[in-house]
Amino acid sequence: MVDAANYSDSFYKEQQMEIILQGKHTNEEAAESLLSVLRLFKEHYQITQFREIRLSVTLLDDQGDDVELVDSETNQVYRTFEVYRKGCELNTGRDRRPVLQLVVDNTR
Which domain of life is it from (predicted)? Predict the structure, then answer.
């Protein structure tokens, strides 16, 4: 049996767990899978809070090709998509949201 352990030592505070959803997923399947993992943490291990959640994803178009999100104003590829809780937003210095365009990456 695996138990959740409380560690006050700063070494253990920096430990992170990876959650890997293998294979292709639709939006709904990915959301359902992630939600089921979070429910498991809550129901079996009494984990009810998270300090930070990082997801690493490969975006696919309808044909299954890898794609990237590109800022239409700067042509910079988005490598990080951050979501902040209300009241915790960072000021990006931009007046408006950039328009995203889908770019197929055929270089692989």
Answer: Bacteria
pLDDT, tens digit, for every residue of 13-44? 567 888 899 999 999 999 999 999 999 999 99
Residue 3, both tokens? 């138990």
pTM tops 0.90 = no
Q: CB of 88 within 8 A of CB of 59?
A: no
- Name beta bridge partners: 71: 100
Task: List the helix and strand counts (H, then E) for the chain.
Answer: 2, 3
The amino acid at 38: L
- Angle (CA) 70-72-78 rounded to 5° is 25
* Calpha distance 68→79 (Å, rounded): 9
Same domain, 49 and 63: no
At 6 the three-state DSSP class reads coil
